[in-house]
UniProtKB/TrEMBL annotation:
This is Peptidyl-tRNA hydrolase. One of its GO terms (cellular component) is cytoplasm. The keyword RNA-binding applies. Belongs to the PTH family. Residues 187-207 are annotated as: Disordered. It catalyses: an N-acyl-L-alpha-aminoacyl-tRNA + H2O = an N-acyl-L-amino acid + a tRNA + H(+).
Length: 207
């Protein structure tokens, strides 16, 4: 039976829960709730849970190595579960996308994301799908490191983020069932440009 591995990136520890950098953990947790999967087994330096979806064995994983060493966990998970290249997807935050927006890609470079850099370096390849969830760029007075490790400031910001997480979870299930091209067609839509000077107008389209 074929295996599909979904890896959500984040940092372990209560102080990092629900921060912008822990998007991957939160999306994987949403998938686990949707599918009744318990993520509690420690394997490959990650917390993992397993279930079935559309006749496929689905593995949800949250690396426990801290973000910058994510690849050390992912390479172990791949050695254990042996998914095909297109049967592993990584979900993570992206400061280059507007808050709550979602983009699916079939492969490519890590960009500025240290967790993805670690994964690509450890695997020695970049031909696997990924789902990026926008967290927006930091305000001018913020350092990037402080921004990604910060919490959402109010209920409105949390709602925008949560809507993006739900969309990312749906994108991942489409990816598992129908493949990356179908997920890209469905979810890589341009956001509405309500304000030509607003953050959405600056969204980078790189589907």
């Amino acid at each position: 039976m074929s295996v599909f591995l979904i890896v959500g990136l984040g940092n372990p520890g209560r102080e990092y829960e629900h921060t912008r950098h822990n998007v991957g953990f939160d999306v994987v947790d949403i998938l686990a709730q949707k599918m009744g999967i318990r993520i509690q087994r420690l394997r490959g330096r990650a917390l993992v849970g397993e279930g079935m979806y559309r006749g496929r064995r689905l593995v949800l994983a949250r690396p426990q190595t801290f973000m910058n060493l994510s690849g050390e966990s992912v390479v172990r998970l791949c050695a254990w579960y042996k998914p095909a290249a297109q049967d592993m997807a990584v979900v993570y935050d992206d400061a280059d996308l507007p808050p709550g927006s979602v983009r699916v890609r079939a492969g490519g470079s890590a960009g500025t994301h240290n967790g993805m850099r670690s994964i690509i370096s450890c695997l020695g390849r970049q031909d696997f799908p990924r789902v990026r969830v926008g967290i927006g760029a930091p305000p001018p007075q913020w350092e990037m490191a402080d921004w990604v490790l910060s919490h959402y400031p109010d209920e409105a910001a949390r709602k925008v983020a949560f809507d993006g997480y739900m969309t990312a979870a749906d994108a991942l299930l489409t990816l598992v069932e129908e493949g990356v091209e179908a997920a890209m067609r469905t979810f890589n839509r341009k956001p509405p440009k309500a304000d030509a000077n607003g953050p959405q107008a600056a969204a980078r389209e790189d589907t």
